[in-house]
Each structure stands twice: as structure tokens, then as C-alpha cells.
Recover the amino acids of this structure.
């Protein structure tokens, strides 16, 4: 069983690797890192900027059939800019950065890893999305760049699921909401999270691997929360 985790240096990505290693000791895990290589052995690490098509394509070259592909790359804020509270704060460069990191990689991975999913055995291509990307669920507003990027990501997932259903019917393509998780990404926003609703990364990873294990090709094209409940697009 080959598993690929994109964003293996991130909070959720690193925990996913640990959970997969623990549940499937015989699995071969390939993972990508971006700025700092994680000190984790038993993983085939590659440095990949997932917004760069040439790097994704080169990474794909060295890997055979894959059972699970998970994209856990994402961004919400930078050192200089926080998500917008008002449209007055919209910054075009920050908006483009959100789209580039939160949407494009899922499309590039879908393009370059089709051949790895052609084996015909049930497999999963999942991207870690966010509930705030749901248009139906949006009651608060704000966070323009992040919300728009996650909504676009969700459309990308839905689109990929429809094409894969025709040409790779054994693959389940899904968007997963991890729940609010204690990582660098959520760190500036944790103060308002209700008691018990901020998950340690290990808990989130356990939930997400539960989802990966439960998914079948018939579940393709869904937006699911960590507990398996369906989120409206
Ligand atoms: N944490 C939460 O509460 C929460 C809630 C809902 C959804 N999510 C989603 O969960 C996913 C994982 O987030 P996280 O909480 O684990 O955040 P995180 O700890 O900040 O991890 C994000 C990872 O993405 C990587 N990354 C950013 N740009 C990249 C690029 N161009 N190429 C390759 N890697 C890149 C980062 O690497 P570098 O740091 O090296 O750049 C980092 O390892 C994201 O999609 C996020 O939107 C998180």
C-alpha cells in the first residue's frame, strides 16, 4: 500500500503521517515538505513546492501505484497579513496567494497522479478543505481570501470527482474538513474556539484516517467533516 501525504511538514500533515504509520506499519509513505524537512524516518521525503507544476510532475515520476493521496497543504495567513475582517482589507496579492496555495495544488496533483490511480483497486484522493469554504454554511462573512479559495477548492474537488468517476471509477475523490485543529494555521484564532472544540493534531489525524478507511468509490464527490457528516457545498 502506497500513501502520499502532501504537506507532511504541516501540523495536520505530520499527524496524518504518524497515524498512517501506526495503523499500517507495512505501508510505504511518501510525503512532501516545503520550507523545513521534518525529522521523521520511515518516510520517503521530497521537497516540493506544490504550486509549481514542474516539481509536482518530477515528484510523480518516482512513485508507482497509490492507494491514498492526501493533500494537507494550505494557508490562512502570512507573517504580514491576517484574513480580512472587512472587504476594505482585501489585498490582491494576498488573495492570489490564497488561491495559489489552497486551490491550484489539488488540480495539479489530480493532473499528474492519474496514472498512479489507474490500478483499479479502491483508492482515495482527498484534500483537506475547510467548512468555511461552504457557501451554504456561511453565516458570518469575513475571511474573503480564505473562504473564496476554499470554495474554489471545493469546486475543483467536485469537478475532479466527476471526471475521475468516468475514467477512474475506483477512486473516491473527496474534500475533508478537519475540525479546528491546534496548528500554526489556526494559532492566531484559537482564543474564541469553544472548550473541547480545538483538536490536538493527533485527534484530527485519527478522525481523518477513519474517513480514509471508510470511504468507498461510491462516496466520491462529497464534502465531509472529520466525523463523517456531510457538509453542504
Ligand atoms: N488547523 C485548522 O484548524 C484547520 C481548519 C480547517 C481546515 N484546515 C486546513 O487543513 C490544511 C492543513 O493545515 P494545518 O492546520 O496543518 O496548517 P499548517 O500547520 O500551517 O500546515 C500547512 C502546510 O502547508 C505547507 N505549504 C504552504 N505553502 C506550500 C507550498 N507552496 N508548497 C508546499 N507546501 C506548502 C506549509 O509548509 P511551509 O510552512 O513549509 O510553507 C505547511 O507545512 C490546510 O488546507 C488548512 O486550510 C485547517
Amino acid at each position: 500500500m502506497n500513501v502520499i501525504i502532501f504537506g507532511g511538514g504541516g501540523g495536520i500533515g505530520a499527524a496524518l503521517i504518524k497515524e498512517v504509520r501506526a495503523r499500517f506499519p507495512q505501508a510505504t509513505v511518501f510525503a512532501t515538505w516545503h520550507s523545513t524537512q521534518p525529522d521523521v524516518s520511515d518516510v520517503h521525503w521530497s521537497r516540493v513546492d506544490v504550486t509549481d507544476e514542474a516539481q509536482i510532475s518530477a515528484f510523480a515520476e518516482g512513485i508507482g501505484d497509490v492507494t491514498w493521496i492526501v493533500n494537507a497543504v494550505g494557508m490562512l495567513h502570512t507573517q504580514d497579513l491576517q484574513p480580512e475582517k472587512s472587504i476594505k482589507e482585501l489585498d490582491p496579492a494576498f488573495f492570489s496567494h490564497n488561491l495559489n496555495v489552497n486551490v491550484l495544488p489539488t488540480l495539479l496533483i489530480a493532473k499528474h497522479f492519474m496514472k498512479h490511480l489507474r490500478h483499479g483497486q479502491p483508492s482515495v484522493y482527498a484534500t483537506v478543505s475547510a467548512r468555511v469554504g461552504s457557501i451554504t454554511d456561511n453565516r458570518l462573512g469575513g475571511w474573503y481570501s480564505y473562504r473564496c479559495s476554499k470554495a474554489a477548492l471545493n469546486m475543483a474537488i467536485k469537478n475532479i470527482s466527476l471526471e475521475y468517476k468516468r475514467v477512474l471509477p475506483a477512486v473516491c475523490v473527496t474534500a475533508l474538513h478537519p475540525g479546528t485543529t491546534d496548528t500554526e494555521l489556526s494559532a492566531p484564532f484559537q482564543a474564541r474556539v469553544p472548550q473541547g472544540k480545538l483538536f490536538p493534531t493527533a485527534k484530527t489525524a485519527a478522525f481523518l484516517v477513519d474517513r480514509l478507511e471508510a470511504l468507498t468509490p461510491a462516496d466520491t464527490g462529497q464534502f465531509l467533516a472529520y466525523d463523517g457528516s456531510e457538509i453542504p457545498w
